[in-house]
Amino acid sequence: MRNLVLSVIGDDRPGLVSALADAVAGHGGNWEQSQLAHLAGKFAGIVAVAVPADGAQQLIDAVTSLDGLLEVAVHSADGPVERATATALTIGLLGNDRPGIVQEISAALNRSGVSIEKMTTATREAPMAGGTLFEATMEVLVPADADLGAVRTELEAIAAELLVDLGIGGS
């Protein structure tokens, strides 16, 4: 079997997932995992598929020819990545929206060797105070050789500077 990762984007409308699923299944592929969303009028996502090696090129040709529906980029994958012993954490942020929040938090995590496994962000109107709130949820892996206390301390300092609420918990 060959593992492929498909990144997809197109103007949001009914039938996009069906068209992609038809192309995958029609060429012997198995849809294994995905993250799909409506973002700013676009439909975007990433899909992991497995396909018999002898049918991979036909599947690639089928999904990349969905012109007019979806733009699809295909990437080869070696299968599941083995993770070293690490501490799983969930990080939540909520505060007034401003440029740089993701950059500052991700830079702090990177300095400690922390891997962001999943991140979801959104903005929404602040119900009582007016303005816009920024909200983020991250699932991260802290390597065994990282100082978990130092990671927490740095994130708390950044949260205080950015004036955002920070929650850190085990997964």
Automatic annotation (TrEMBL):
GO BP: regulation of DNA-templated transcription
Coiled coil: none
PROSITE patterns on file: ACT (PS51671)
All copies of domain ACT, residue ranges: 90-171
InterPro entries: ACT-like_dom_sf, ACT_dom, GcvR, UPF0237/GcvR_regulator
Domain of life, per lineage: Bacteria
PANTHER family, per the entry: UPF0237 PROTEIN MJ1558
Protein's UniProt name: ACT domain-containing protein
Organism: Gordonia hirsuta DSM 44140 = NBRC 16056
